[in-house]
Amino acid sequence: MEKVDLRFMEQCFLFENKIKEFSTIKELAEDWRKAHKTIEELRRKLTVKGQEVDLLKDRVSDLTKTVKRPRFKKRSNESSSRGKICEDAEERNSKKGLDRETHKKDLKIHQTKVIEPGNIPEGAKFKCYKRFIVQDLIIEPNNIEYKRAVYKLKNGKLLIPDFPKGIEGSHFGINLRSYIQYQYHKMRTTEGVIYESLKDMGFDISKTQIHNIIVSESLLMEKEYKDILSSGLVYSSHICADDTGAKHKNKNIYCTQIGNEAFGWYKSTDRKTRINFLELLNNNKEEYAFTENSINYLKDHNVYEVKYIKKGLKLEGKDKLEKYIENLGMVSIKNTQLIKEVGLMGSIESKGISPSLFIMSDEAGQFNVFNRILCWVHIERNFKKLSPTLDDFKQDLELVLDKIWKIYKMLKIYKIHQSIKLKKEIYKFFDLLISTETNYVPLKEQLQKLEKNKNKLLPVLTNFNLPLHNNLSENNIRQMVMRRNISGSTYNEHGKNVRDIMTSIKVTCRRSLISFWDFLLDRISKQNNIPSLYFVVKNRLSELAITNTF
Asked: pTM of the prediction?
């Protein structure tokens, strides 16, 4: 085995510290290039302007020699100065102390109030207005009575105009329905608390009506919910997956999270198997297809019945698939499982999703599909769970953990600065790690497991955009955990679907830098000024440069 260049590794870690201080090398280089270009452009413009100034100076000098500058008396015109905003030293100093966000955003002014001094001394002249912006909130009932003119036609039928867009016969307005949705899903406020707060404000609304608004408005966004997953899978180079426990009808079920830096998608099911995960990726459609990749996968796993499966075969429905498998003859339980999984994988591929899609997760078996990559943080946790008693074993474990974190740091550096030399050193150091000699059996078993998962831990060396850990997915799954802790169990399919739909939309809005409040207002009012979340996710992925390039 080749020796690891320790001096080079030391340089790598020093390089990492430099990166932390001065941002990334790529960013700095790009900033320097842009700055240099800007400076050159300004220098050129300055030269031109300097020449123009010199010419103007000469002209002014010639004119002042022949024509005397006339003198005018200053005239006070109070009416013309009305509306002028003054900015003296005090004003400029006061701005420095204001919230930066106030000045970043171009605040919309809804009303302007002029305040005049109580006693204006005689002879005082108006100078200007001193601005002072106060942000406030109006929460109060705004009841609107619609009077629809009814006309009776000659044929006896009645002519009645439609309701305005977004109202459509609802006794509760767009803003109120959006507020209820925002409080429930974003602020995680319970239906009971929402009811109490609205009653305090003077609204005539019941708990049942609040519940119906939450359910009905949420279910109307189901297509947006499905579009999130479709766009995320088609246009992403990688996704992260995780799951957590959930309650439905007071029974334990599971909620699976799928997403990345641009979106988050949730689905609650009563099981967590590989087939279940593939069904989720297939948008819960019972469709099966056998592509070239599917056939090759079965061949690699020595499935004898593959020779009877025709390439391009498509089946709809579980019953048809099971009948087809039955007609193949005596198929083992293991091979039956593989054929079902492959059929789903083929169907997913036929929808435009790359078979090279990377899936980041922990070591849970249900996520072991397509291009599986493992989380380094979870790998480190497996070693930390070991509890040796002997000092020698403790030292062996500490040595291994130290090597793991050194490799992890080197991988972080490589994601920023792709060096061929560093790439080779990482491979060498990984081989050194898995060949660590120890008499501690549990540690040896973990190292053997690490060796088997080498290709699942180092794919970032061929695709530097891939993540090294599953922290993002774990952060996303906390959204569902917090919702579960507050609301507890769901008691019908509508409640379960609402929880999945709106959590997905809320997280996707945040990932795609869209205000969840603006989105609710837009969709409930049926204005649809915000694009479909399918295109929102697609565009966000393009901005983040994590789109599928395969």
From this structure: 0.78
